[in-house]
Design brief:
Elements lengths: L3 E2 L24 H7 L2 H5 L3 E3 L5 E3 L9 E2 H10 L6 E5 H22 L5 E6 L6 H12 L4 E4 L2 H10 L7 E4 L5 H12 L3 E6 L2 H13 L6 E4 L24 H13 L6 E5 L9 H20 L6 E3 L23 H19 L5 E4 L2 H5 L3 E11 L22 H11 L6 H20 L5 H24 L10 H4 L2 E5 L3 H4 L1 H6 L5 E3 L9 E6 L8 E2 L2 E2 L4 E2 L2 E3 L9 E5 L5 H4 L10 E7 L5 E7 L4 H7 L4 H17 L5 H16 L11
Helix pairs in contact: 4-5, 4-11, 6-7, 7-8, 10-11, 13-14, 13-15, 14-15, 21-22
């Protein structure tokens, strides 16, 4: 990502609709839009719709303190930045940390638990400097620590915690010598760092380097539980998980430490139950098993202090609060209560002191605080086709039109509710026959195009009739999908929403304005890349998946803005430079108690020169080649000197421009 901006850029035209529209229309309301897009369900009090039909963000869930997303985009445009745009809400992030801390502390008080709670943020979930700083700062008073899963992450965490040396730092991931040596150096600096052993070899390195630097380690072990998580990441846990020790290896670690008189150094037990666990039963089962292992280690003489339940706390992406894989059938309070109660019950049975509970719920901490805003550039609408009033005369020298053309036109003219399925099947058969004739040269291009127009016009008529029926035929269930529009949008799925492409993740997607109007189109979304996978054709639908999303019609050139919500976990770091579309602009927004918001920081997105340098292009050489070509063109009288200079200036400006679609006056 490019520079952080402290000064605003040159102003550009503010975002305004090309066509004036009322905030609401008769027969439709913002309440119906809120229900259609389930905004209040997945929004959990953080997102809603205002009277103007705009999506608003309430970082503290206070209805009187809200940010209008449309106004933020307009404000960014006035500062010279256009969509696509990623917006972070610092106050929402802080509120999520408070929510998690309050849930655990409330459960501890309710159950009479004798230990405490410490949250830990795994920075792999969102490694952006500003986000990690905000977690660090907000988590200071809440007792939150940080987790590093690699040597680079540890070096970043070390540099960010100099003022809070007692902050818990957990080090996961496979570790080579330098990684482990840096944990020893961090310990020597006074950091409360705990390297978590993923294999027995790491223990030998820990003992070597900590002795070399004259510090006594606090050590954790990650254990592979028999209990397996639930959902799409269930295979990342259980006995065949990528990381962690078997029970025999855990006992081997304790034995090695006991031989050195260091059993008190084994202080933390960790596990990975999975990510986005949607069923609370898996949480209960895993925590119960983990607590048993912890208790047995404590009774065997280990200096156990921390029980780390790992991540897995879900996000309700569709708002259904069910066991659907993109939802969760429990609340944050229920999760915390179950974890605390299960650990307490097992420890009491085993006669072991209650440990400090640690959780690494990174997704639950940061997912909700980010919104990706992008604009629609155009649309492909298959129901735009119109059938002719009559068929044309046969071409000169021919006595009749191709039979499939005549037949499909007859079907179009005779469509009726009584024969709707039969009509649709006839359409498919006639179109297939037309394609066969065209492929062997027995149908002209003009007739083939006419068949297509009639086919889509007939499909649209059948669809409209089916919509009016109380019980439309099941055989026509795919017709809505076949006739859905394609909305072309100014973004790269691979860069900004890579989980959609890579693992079929669902995020709530909705317009951020015009929500007082009835959406009349059903559409899929296509991005700017030339890859066929650069599309979104799966959308949340109340513990189900639908193949289109309801959107508004719009005229070419008219502004229409969509938002992808709950995207703060993983997406920013996982982005891919497909077609050299780079990072988007990022705005960090804050709000005061009076509801006044401001842009606290703008991090400028990648310019073309940035992404070219990432893939090792020599920009000076590229510019030099264009300059030489311009000089040759001047010598050969292909262009004037003034024209060559204008071309060079345009080329240089292009290198400095945004990688995404730009309009006149935008940055």
């Amino acid at each position: 990502m490019a520079d952080t901006l402290t000064d605003t850029a040159a102003p550009a035209p503010a975002l305004r609709p090309r066509t004036a529209r009322p905030a609401t229309e008769p027969g439709w309301s913002v309440e119906e839009s809120a229900s259609l897009y389930s905004i209040r369900n997945w929004g959990k009090g953080f997102f809603d719709v205002n009277a103007a039909g705009h999506v608003v963000v309430r970082p503290t869930r206070n209805p009187g303190v809200e940010v209008d997303l449309y106004e933020v985009v307009a404000g960014m445009r006035e500062r010279g930045f256009r969509t696509p745009l990623l917006i972070h809400f610092s106050d929402l992030l802080r509120q999520r940390l408070v929510d998690i801390a309050d849930a655990f502390r409330g459960a501890i008080h309710e159950h009479g638990y004798q230990g405490s709670y410490q949250g830990v943020f795994p920075i792999k979930v969102n490694q952006q400097r500003r986000v990690v700083e905000e977690v660090r700062d907000a988590g200071k008073s809440l007792g939150f620590g940080l987790e590093a899963g690699s040597k680079p992450e540890l070096l970043a965490v070390m540099g960010m915690t100099s003022d809070t040396p007692d902050r818990l730092i957990i080090c996961n991931g496979f570790k080579e010598e330098r990684y482990i040596e840096f944990t020893a150096l961090a310990k020597k600096l006074g950091r409360n760092v705990i390297p978590v052993i993923e294999n027995v070899t790491e223990l030998k390195l820990i003992l070597r380097f900590y002795e070399q630097h004259g510090v006594r380690p606090a050590i954790g072990v990650r254990v592979n539980l028999a209990s397996q998580g639930a959902g799409r990441w269930r295979h990342s846990s259980g006995l065949k998980a990528k990381f962690g020790l078997s029970m025999n290896e855990v006992l081997e670690v304790l034995s090695i430490l006991r031989q050195r008189g260091m059993e008190d150094c084994l202080q933390l037990l960790h596990c990975h139950m999975g990510s986005q666990i949607h069923d609370i039963r898996q949480v209960n089962q895993g925590v119960n098993e983990l607590a048993r292992v912890y208790s047995q280690l404590a009774k065997a003489g280990a200096g156990m202090r921390y029980l780390d339940v790992g991540g897995g706390l879900g996000i309700d992406y569709d708002g259904s609060q069910t066991s659907f894989e993109f939802s969760m059938n429990y609340t944050l309070q229920e999760y915390a209560s179950n974890v605390v109660y299960k650990i307490m019950t097992v420890c009491d049975e085993e006669g072991v002191a209650h440990p400090t509970i640690v959780s690494e719920s990174g997704r639950a901490m940061v997912a909700q605080q980010s919104v990706l805003i992008f604009d629609v550039l155009g649309a492909n609408r298959l129901d735009r086709y119109v059938a002719p009033a009559r068929l044309p005369e046969p071409p000169a020298g021919e006595t009749e039109l191709p039979r499939p053309l005549v037949d499909i036109f007859d079907v179009y003219r005779t469509i009726s509710e009584r024969r709707l399925v039969e009509n649709y099947n006839d359409l498919l058969e006639d179109r297939d026959e037309a394609l066969r004739l065209f492929s062997v040269g027995l149908m002209s291009l003009e007739h083939r195009a006419l068949v297509d127009s009639i086919f889509w016009a007939a499909c649209a008529r059948i669809r409209d009739i089916a919509r009016s029926m109380s019980r439309p035929p099941e055989e026509l269930g795919d017709l809505e999908t076949a006739l859905s529009d394609t909305y072309f949008c100014n973004l790269s799925i691979f860069q900004s929403l890579p989980d959609i492409w890579a693992i079929n993740q669902l995020f709530p997607i909705a317009p951020i304005h015009r929500l007082g109007e009835r959406p009349t189109r059903k559409a899929t979304i296509a991005d700017l890349t030339c890859d066929s996978d650069g599309k979104i054709d799966r959308f949340v639908d109340d513990h189900d998946v639908k193949k289109w999303v309801e959107l508004h019609d719009f005229a070419d050139g008219e502004e229409y803005l969509l938002g992808a919500f709950l995207v703060g976990a993983y997406q920013e770091t996982l982005g891919d430079l497909h077609n050299l579309f780079g990072d988007t602009h990022v705005a960090h927004v804050k709000i005061d108690e009076q509801g006044e918001w401001w842009i606290d920081e703008i991090i400028e997105g990648d310019a073309v020169r940035d992404v070219l340098s990432y893939v090792h292009y020599d920009l000076s050489r590229l510019f030099g080649e264009i300059r030489r070509e311009c000089e040759k063109a001047v010598v050969n009288k292909q262009m004037t000197v003034a024209e060559s200079q204008a071309l060079l200036k345009a080329y240089e400006a292009g290198l400095s421009g945004y990688t995404y679609l730009e309009t006149e006056g935008s940055r």
